Amino acid sequence: MIKDALQRGWNTFVFDGPGQQSMLFERDVPFRHDWEAVLTPVVDALVQRSDVDPDALLAYGISQAGYWLPRALAFEHRFVAACVDSGVMDVGITWRNHLPAPLLALLDAGDQQRFDAFMAQGFANPETERSFAFRARPYGIKTPFALFSEVARYHLYDVVERITTPMLITDPEDDQFFSGQPQRLFDALPGEKALTPFTREQGANYHCEPLARGLVSLRMNDFFAEQLAKAGR
Prior knowledge:
The protein is an alpha/beta fold. α3 (36-46) packs across α4. The chain folds into 2 domains: 2-90 and 158-230, Alpha/Beta hydrolase fold, catalytic domain (Rossmann fold), CATH 3.40.50.1820; 93-151, no CATH class. Helix content is 42%, strand content 11%. A 4-stranded parallel beta sheet has the order 1-2-3-4, with helices on both faces. The protein has helices at 2-7, 21-25, 36-46, 65-73, 91-96, 101-109, 112-119, 126-136, 144-151, 181-188, 213-230; strands spanning 57-62, 79-85, 167-172, 193-198. The model has no long low-confidence stretch (mean pLDDT 95). α10 links the parallel β3 (167-172) and β4 (193-198).
């Protein structure tokens, strides 16, 4: 991604957001759903630099940033174009899909005591328990009910109509986490948009197309170049 961008003569800026990499493991800063509070200060800092064209900003978000970046773009409108890999309309769907119907009923009823009591019994599969602990950690929340309640805030339903930035959305086949959500985001976006599928035959299936990063980079940066040309940059 970065190599291709640099070869096209573009400067790049990469940072860890809350709950990710150094912010999580070195500073213990958890996720937050309101990513406009993260991205806008970053843009404010970038546009002050002499090596940044404030009228040629591009944004790329991978994995769960497929939610965070669109969320921020509902409020931050200084980007020429954006790409999300892949698109995420509602993070909470993935979490709810793993709950049996009785637990979903307790969650929706707001029965924190019984929900937490059932969850405290643990998982039948140790691997599932480890995976749950790993995915829960970035949220910085200790009780299961509070965790699922927090994750339920990570959706775009109430802000998607405010997004005006032209957006490319990747849609990899066999996505383990957000299958179907790229199309949902594409359908909901009001402005210029493109949905790019990646397939098993291309070797580009699975979440974030792990074996086809060069192909994804090509599609994304071609889209960015088209949008920059439209903007006269």
